[in-house]
Amino acid sequence: MTDSQNKNYIIALDQGTTSSRAIIFDRDANVVCTAQREFQQHYPQAGWVEHDPMEIFATQSAVMVEALAQAGLHHDQVAAIGITNQRETTVVWDKISGRPIYNAIVWQCRRSTEICEQLKRDGHEQYISDTTGLVTDPYFSGTKLKWILDNVEGSRERARNGELLFGTIDSWLIWKFTGGKTHVTDYTNASRTMLFNIHTLEWDSKMLEVLDIPREMLPEVKSSSEIYGRTKSGIAIGGIAGDQQAALFGQMCVEPGQAKNTYGTGCFLLMNTGTNAVKSTHGMLTTIACGPKGEVAYALEGAVFNGGSTVQWLRDELKIINDAHDTEYFASKVKDSNGVYLVPAFTGLGAPYWDPYARGALFGLTRGVRVDHIIRAALESIAYQTRDVLDAMQQDSGERLKALRVDGGAVANNFLMQFQADILGTMVERPQMRETTALGAAYLAGLACGFWGSLDELRGKAVIEREFEPALEEACKEKLYAGWKKAVSRTRDWEPHEESH
Ligand SMILES: Nc1ncnc2c1ncn2[C@@H]1O[C@H](COP(=O)(O)OP(=O)(O)O)[C@@H](O)[C@H]1O
Ligand SMILES: O=P(O)(O)OC[C@H](O)CO
C-alpha cells in the first residue's frame, strides 16, 4: 500500500466563537470522531468582547490530538487538515516570541464604533461599500486592527519594522501550527477585513492608508483550496474558509441562487451569486465565497450578531435554563409568547439595520408573563431576525427561495425550526449531516490534495433529515412580525454615541 492510499482521513478544525472543534472525516465524508472544547469569553467593558489567542490555539491543538486518539489514528493517516474559523476576529502577534500583543478582538466587539463614525464623517462609507462589499461597522477586522495599533504603545512602529503580524483566526492558527513558517489567509477571510478589494482580489492601498495599517503585517492571500504548509508533525494544511463560507460549501450551495442559514452564536444567511458581485441596497454584505472547486465566487450575506448567544444568555446570565436544549420544551409549553418580544441587540444590531448603538430589550411585559414566555420570545427572536434578513436579501437578489437550508447548533431545536418556517412562510430543510461548516473545510482540504476528485463525488451526502412546512395563517404571521418590527424600532439608537468608544 502506498503512503497516499494509507491516508484515509481528513481533519477539519472548526474554530468557532464559543468552542474549538476537531472533526475527522473518512473517504465517504462520514464523521469518524469529534472533539470539542469551550474557551473563555472576556467582556472587559459593556459591548466589548475578547478571546485569548493562546487559549484558542491551545484548545484547537488539544481537540486535534484528542480526536486522533479517540479514533485510534496516527497523524500519518491524515491526508490533510482543513481550517474554518470565526471570521473578522483580529489578532496581532510578535513574530519572534510568537505571542499576541493584545487579546483577540472578537467580531461581536463594538469598541471601534467611534473609528467607524470617523470614517463616515470623512466620507469613506461609499468607497468602503464599493471596494470591500462591507458596511462601515465595527464588526469587521480593519477598525479593530486600527484600535490595537492606536492603543498598544509602540505597536504601529513595530508593525512597520516587520516585527508584528496581523491575522484573522485562520492565519493565527496556521502560523502557530506551522511553527511560524506560514503567514497566509484565504479570500473568504480577507473579504471580511475591510482592507481587501473584493473585485481586484488585493489588499486595498487606500483602506490601508485611511486606517494607517502597515502593509508589512498583512498575510499573503490565497485560494480556499490549496496546500499552504505543513504542521510540525507533517500533516498538509489544504483548506481555509471563514466558517459561514465553509458552511455554504459544505451545504453544496456552489451555484448562483443557492443559500443557507447557519444558527450558531450569530445567524448568517448566505446566498451564492456566482461570478456576480451583487451590490446590496438593503443592508446585505457582498462577500467572497467558494465556487465548485473552491475558487472565488461571490455571495450576498445577512449577518445577525446574536442568535444562539441569546439562548446562552438565558442559561449563563439569567440562569432560567440549565441547557440550551431545554428551551424547546419550555417554549412548547405555552401557546404563544403572550405578547412578549425579546430583541437581543446585546452588541448592537447587524443586518439589515447596522446599528451599533441599539441595545437589547424585552417588550410587552404584563402581569401574566412567565419565564416560559420569555424563553419562547428568545427563540422567536432568532427566527424574526432571519426573516428580516431573508426579506432584504430577496429584494436584493430578485430570487424567491423555495426552501431555506439550515445548519448550526441551534437547528436541533424543533420548535425554533417550525417557528422559522411559520414566520417566513417558506419551507425549512434540515440536513442529516449537521457538521456542514467542518464538512466544507474538509471538502476544501480534500479537493486540494486529491483525496476527493470533485464535489460531484459527494453530492449524495446532501440528504434532508426533516422538512418544516409553514403552518401559520398569513394574517397571524404578519401580525406577529409587525410586533417584532415595532419592538426593534424601540431598541434603535439607544446607547449614547459619546459613550460607545
Ligand atoms: N437545542 C438548542 N436550542 C437552541 N439553541 C441551541 C440549541 N443547541 C445549541 N444552541 C445554541 O447554538 C449555539 C452553538 O452552536 P454552534 O454552531 O456550535 O455555534 P458557534 O460555532 O457559534 O460556537 C449556542 O449559542 C447555543 O446556545
Ligand atoms: O463562530 P460562529 O459560528 O458564531 O461564526 C462567527 C462568524 O464567522 C462571525 O462572522
UniProtKB/TrEMBL annotation:
<feature type="binding site">
    <location>
        <position position="244"/>
    </location>
    <ligand>
        <name>glycerol</name>
    </ligand>
</feature>
<keyword id="KW-0319">Glycerol metabolism</keyword>
<dbReference type="InterPro" id="IPR018483">
    <property type="entry name" value="Carb_kinase_FGGY_CS"/>
</dbReference>
<feature type="binding site">
    <location>
        <position position="409"/>
    </location>
    <ligand>
        <name>ADP</name>
    </ligand>
</feature>
<dbReference type="Pfam" id="PF00370">
    <property type="entry name" value="FGGY_N"/>
</dbReference>
<dbReference type="InterPro" id="IPR018484">
    <property type="entry name" value="FGGY_N"/>
</dbReference>
<feature type="binding site">
    <location>
        <position position="312"/>
    </location>
    <ligand>
        <name>ATP</name>
    </ligand>
</feature>
<feature type="binding site">
    <location>
        <position position="88"/>
    </location>
    <ligand>
        <name>glycerol</name>
    </ligand>
</feature>
<keyword id="KW-0067">ATP-binding</keyword>
<feature type="domain" description="Carbohydrate kinase FGGY N-terminal">
    <location>
        <begin position="9"/>
        <end position="250"/>
    </location>
</feature>
<keyword id="KW-0808">Transferase</keyword>
<dbReference type="GO" id="GO:0004370">
    <property type="term" value="F:glycerol kinase activity"/>
</dbReference>
<dbReference type="GO" id="GO:0006072">
    <property type="term" value="P:glycerol-3-phosphate metabolic process"/>
</dbReference>
<comment type="function">
    <text>Key enzyme in the regulation of glycerol uptake and metabolism. Catalyzes the phosphorylation of glycerol to yield sn-glycerol 3-phosphate.</text>
</comment>
<feature type="binding site">
    <location>
        <position position="17"/>
    </location>
    <ligand>
        <name>sn-glycerol 3-phosphate</name>
    </ligand>
</feature>
<feature type="binding site">
    <location>
        <position position="265"/>
    </location>
    <ligand>
        <name>ADP</name>
    </ligand>
</feature>
<feature type="binding site">
    <location>
        <position position="243"/>
    </location>
    <ligand>
        <name>sn-glycerol 3-phosphate</name>
    </ligand>
</feature>
<feature type="binding site">
    <location>
        <position position="243"/>
    </location>
    <ligand>
        <name>glycerol</name>
    </ligand>
</feature>
<feature type="domain" description="Carbohydrate kinase FGGY C-terminal">
    <location>
        <begin position="260"/>
        <end position="448"/>
    </location>
</feature>
<protein>
    <recommendedName>
        <fullName>Glycerol kinase</fullName>
        <ecNumber>2.7.1.30</ecNumber>
    </recommendedName>
</protein>
<dbReference type="GO" id="GO:0005524">
    <property type="term" value="F:ATP binding"/>
</dbReference>
<feature type="binding site">
    <location>
        <position position="409"/>
    </location>
    <ligand>
        <name>ATP</name>
    </ligand>
</feature>
<dbReference type="GO" id="GO:0019563">
    <property type="term" value="P:glycerol catabolic process"/>
</dbReference>
<dbReference type="InterPro" id="IPR000577">
    <property type="entry name" value="Carb_kinase_FGGY"/>
</dbReference>
<feature type="binding site">
    <location>
        <position position="17"/>
    </location>
    <ligand>
        <name>ADP</name>
    </ligand>
</feature>
<feature type="binding site">
    <location>
        <position position="21"/>
    </location>
    <ligand>
        <name>ADP</name>
    </ligand>
</feature>
<feature type="binding site">
    <location>
        <position position="308"/>
    </location>
    <ligand>
        <name>ADP</name>
    </ligand>
</feature>
<feature type="binding site">
    <location>
        <position position="308"/>
    </location>
    <ligand>
        <name>ATP</name>
    </ligand>
</feature>
<dbReference type="InterPro" id="IPR043129">
    <property type="entry name" value="ATPase_NBD"/>
</dbReference>
<feature type="binding site">
    <location>
        <position position="265"/>
    </location>
    <ligand>
        <name>ATP</name>
    </ligand>
</feature>
<dbReference type="Pfam" id="PF02782">
    <property type="entry name" value="FGGY_C"/>
</dbReference>
<feature type="binding site">
    <location>
        <position position="18"/>
    </location>
    <ligand>
        <name>ATP</name>
    </ligand>
</feature>
<feature type="binding site">
    <location>
        <position position="19"/>
    </location>
    <ligand>
        <name>ATP</name>
    </ligand>
</feature>
<feature type="binding site">
    <location>
        <position position="139"/>
    </location>
    <ligand>
        <name>glycerol</name>
    </ligand>
</feature>
<feature type="binding site">
    <location>
        <position position="413"/>
    </location>
    <ligand>
        <name>ADP</name>
    </ligand>
</feature>
<feature type="binding site">
    <location>
        <position position="88"/>
    </location>
    <ligand>
        <name>sn-glycerol 3-phosphate</name>
    </ligand>
</feature>
<comment type="similarity">
    <text>Belongs to the FGGY kinase family.</text>
</comment>
<feature type="binding site">
    <location>
        <position position="17"/>
    </location>
    <ligand>
        <name>ATP</name>
    </ligand>
</feature>
<feature type="binding site">
    <location>
        <position position="87"/>
    </location>
    <ligand>
        <name>glycerol</name>
    </ligand>
</feature>
<keyword id="KW-0547">Nucleotide-binding</keyword>
<feature type="binding site">
    <location>
        <position position="139"/>
    </location>
    <ligand>
        <name>sn-glycerol 3-phosphate</name>
    </ligand>
</feature>
<dbReference type="GO" id="GO:0005829">
    <property type="term" value="C:cytosol"/>
</dbReference>
